[in-house]
């Protein structure tokens, strides 16, 4: 976008090089003052952050692959095999997702303090990323060998090194203050901020160090400590809340405003939440085609022998896979679409909304598992129905947590939502309809599978493909409804008290007090 | 970023909802005029495009997986197996990459005309994306069964449907002109533009339709047509260039400026080139850890039986894999870093720069193959050396095409580069050093493998890990060099003619005429 170019150029504000004769002069001159300070090579961090978001979102989602690729025998009962799966792999997936998300949140906060980068910081950040991408592996070691301390040692060492690199980044940033957030840059007690931020950053590595020590003689304690690491922000937030309540509502000191960007309970950057979510949706949508490209190109020799050279016949066996692909892609695409519509109207993301978003994304990441399950079993078997039910559950939760984001925004501060979608806003009903579509379709399908034993995976995938039309229909219906309302009310100019009955009665939360 | 919020808000410029008493009124009123036009639901297309970029970049890179996962037997000669591979899979990868890139370029142009979206366009775009993600599969069918027309039929039908959806998007956009580019929106002969753009969009589907017809009686012709599709923009550009030369240099008519956004030979949006490149680098970096997470977690039973329960011993077997992972991640990360540094100073991307960027990315996409090859063979075998040589070739070309982007920018228009990195600019030498580092390291390593038969994959990966320090060293060296120059020249104030000898003599291209 135009703005970004403007931003980059902003940091080298100076001249075009002068005409031929004076070139030498300008060349040497331009090196002199600002170069010694290193000021010249600072860059906007926009693209570094976008790249980090992409890496982290892929890594968060990758651990679903070992789950999805677990072969389940046809004669096994799906329920039992899933229970075994649940015990390890799904737990690994969910925990990895949460841990990577915690690392990502820390990364956001760090680069809210350090707003400009130079080459050195870019390289340090890449080193940090390398270790973050390694976390899922150490975690799966930990889950596969819970008795062995090697997994926990590796995991904790990675976290400690990440913490140290981040501490170096902060120290480096404070030594070259033009890299910092403007607010901190102009503040007088920089040293104080520096120690505060370092303290926040080093909290996690220190906990991990303690976990390493414990792992040598009492390993369950280390797992407890790791759980604390994940939930630390929430714990510290509630502790602070209790403390404040106990002391009576103390007002925020004006100084604490300056910490805003490093308080773990303050809003996340909306742009980075969007970028991270985009990454997750994109990788989930394409994990599906990745499997198809690898597994579903028939072998030429086999086609010759088994199908007498008829490629169409050979491909017919893959029919369910293709249908499943299109169905799943449509589902992921539309969940992204709902997310996109919602965040268009979100103006501020609170911690709670970020948490709901993470949960929603974790379920979205489970969709490849649903895809794998639904086309794997013979038609009309007990397992097939259960696979469909599992898919419905995954889709239901992905949708319901999206709705939770909206509810949190409605309940939360007035400024978290655009007026159009607030209670009684113009697009309020439409937004609700959009958010409610997937949970209700998933719930309906789930109930159908209980009632109809004839329900099959192809029907399910066909349903998935047709949902987009439901979105268009929804749009039409809402329009017709609004036109009707306009027809009834506009000429008559009824009184204000009549309207609330046209609001959706299912919405228990309101913002009646304006 | 802050700007985006501003942008979104821009499209719903209106009021906060009024106070309690008048709420009904405002609710009904707000629906009336602009809603009927549909104006209310327009959104900035920023996030839709970012999501599309992410999807397309992943899809472009995915086809390297079947190549990388091809098992090569230890006793086979690597050269022979690679020749077999080259014949099909690598060709499929490269062609898919190019085709997907062409689809991406068309997508850029389309959304340079249509700058705002509404729900309908978002859904149409998702449908388009679904078909684009399916292209690699049809293409690999085509390559596996070149005799069978089914592959080509599927491929062409996909392209035709994509073209039709894009035509619908354009028609829809022109029926609601507030969605269009401001330039076209204010223009008087919109109908003319509409037909021009539709003509450009439908060119490719029509060629594909002809290819389908040919495939029934003379299939080689269809492949020729498909090749034309890929190189069409370049062909049409050179034809136009020849035509212009033949007629004498005709000046651009002022009207043709308006077509700017839809001429295939005009600059690509820099932001989208960056987003696409980020996607490719991110997915390549994480494809590696994906393999590690799936294949390198040892089986608990095996550890118990083979290694008497010692996890460390079991993991030692995977040592080369881990080293290869860190080495490859460092390489991908640093290639990204160079790309990032380069594009910070690029102000405008020409068609040629876009092409070089695509080639560079295609080689970057080949890195997972290099990773797979270098840790697969027993140490000091002939195959291992050849695998390292292949890696060097891939890295060399990825780096050399990055340099080609820079050269194209230097040769090209004056405005394509920021003054700092132009010839005689402040960071010119440093940028050259950065861009030259990887090609020269790769070349050096290649020569080393020819001379030293003791050279092994672990050494190679260790080298890869140490390159980042070379970057820091480079920075230091350039600084020391500059400080020295300042010391020698600044007090003496020598004449202008002395300086050129300090410029890099290897740069044959200059911008002497100012």
TrEMBL record, chains A, B:
Q: Which Pfam families match?
A: TMEM175
Q: Where is this region: Disordered?
A: 1-24
Q: Name one GO molecular function term.
A: proton channel activity
Keyword annotations for this protein? Ion channel, Ion transport, Membrane, Potassium, Potassium channel, Potassium transport, Transmembrane, Transmembrane helix, Transport
Which compartment or compartments is the protein found in? Membrane
* Membrane-protein topology: Multi-pass membrane protein
* Entry's transmembrane regions: 48-70, 90-108, 120-143, 149-174, 204-235, 322-343, 355-375, 387-411, 432-455, 467-489
Compositional bias per record (Basic and acidic residues), positions renumbered to this chain: 8-21
Kindly state which reaction or reactions the protein catalyses. K(+)(in) = K(+)(out); H(+)(in) = H(+)(out)
Which Gene Ontology CC terms are recorded?
Answer: membrane
Q: Which PANTHER family match?
A: ENDOSOMAL/LYSOSOMAL POTASSIUM CHANNEL TMEM175, ENDOSOMAL_LYSOSOMAL PROTON CHANNEL TMEM175
- Family in the record: Belongs to the TMEM175 family.
Name used for this protein in its record: Endosomal/lysosomal proton channel TMEM175
Task: Name the lineage.
Answer: Eukaryota, Metazoa, Chordata, Craniata, Vertebrata
């Amino acid at each position: 976008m135009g703005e970004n170019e403007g931003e980059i150029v902003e940091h080298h504000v100076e001249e075009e090089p002068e005409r031929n004769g004076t070139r030498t002069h300008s060349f040497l001159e331009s090196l002199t003052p600002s170069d010694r300070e290193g000021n010249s090579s600072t860059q906007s961090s926009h693209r570094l952050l976008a790249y980090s978001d992409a890496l982290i979102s892929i890594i968060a989602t990758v651990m679903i692959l070992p789950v999805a690729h677990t072969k389940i025998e046809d004669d096994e009962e799906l329920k039992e095999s899933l229970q075994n799966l649940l015990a390890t792999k799904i737990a690994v997936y969910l925990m990895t997702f949460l841990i990577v998300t915690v690392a990502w949140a820390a990364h956001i906060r760090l680069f809210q303090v350090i707003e400009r980068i130079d080459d050195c910081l870019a390289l340090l950040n890449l080193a940090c990323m390398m270790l973050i991408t390694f976390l899922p592996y150490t975690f799966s070691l930990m889950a596969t060998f819970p008795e062995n301390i090697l997994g926990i040692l590796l995991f904790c060492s990675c976290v400690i090194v990440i913490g140290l690199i981040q501490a170096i980044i902060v120290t480096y940033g404070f030594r070259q203050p033009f890299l910092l957030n403007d607010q901190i840059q102009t503040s007088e007690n920089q040293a104080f901020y520096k120690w505060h931020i370092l303290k926040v950053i080093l909290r996690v590595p220190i906990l991990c160090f303690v976990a390493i020590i414990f792992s040598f003689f009492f390993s369950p304690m280390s797992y407890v400590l790791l759980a604390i690491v994940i939930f630390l922000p929430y714990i510290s937030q509630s502790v602070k809340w209790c403390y404040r309540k106990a002391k009576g509502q103390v007002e925020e000191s004006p100084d604490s405003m300056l910490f805003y960007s490093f308080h773990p309970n303050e809003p996340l950057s909306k742009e980075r939440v969007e970028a991270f979510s985009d990454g997750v949706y994109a990788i989930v949508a394409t994990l599906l085609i990745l499997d198809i490209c690898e597994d579903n190109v028939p072998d030429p020799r086999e086609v010759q022998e088994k199908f007498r050279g008829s490629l169409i016949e050979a491909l017919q066996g893959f029919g369910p896979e293709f249908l499943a692909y299109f169905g799943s892609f449509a589902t992921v695409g539309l969940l992204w679409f709902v997310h996109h519509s919602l965040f268009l109207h979100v103006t501020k993301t609170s911690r709670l909304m970020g948490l709901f978003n993470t949960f929603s994304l974790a379920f979205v990441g489970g969709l490849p598992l649903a895809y794998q399950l639904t086309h794997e079993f013979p038609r009309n078997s007990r397992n097939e129905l259960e696979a469909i039910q599992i898919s419905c559950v995954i889709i239901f939760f992905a949708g319901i947590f999206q709705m939770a984001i909206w509810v949190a925004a409605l309940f939360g501060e007035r400024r978290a939502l655009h007026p159009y979608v607030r209670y009684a806003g113009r697009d309020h009903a439409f937004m609700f309809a959009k958010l409610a579509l997937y949970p209700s379709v998933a719930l309906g399908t789930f109930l159908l599978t209980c009632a109809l034993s004839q329900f099959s995976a192809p029907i399910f995938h066909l349903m998935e493909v047709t949902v987009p039309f439901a979105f268009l229909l929804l749009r039409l219906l809402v329009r017709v409804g609004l036109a009707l309302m306009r027809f009834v009310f506009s000429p008559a100019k009824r009184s204000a008290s009549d309207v609330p009955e046209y609001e959706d009665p299912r919405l228990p939360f309101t913002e009646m007090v304006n």
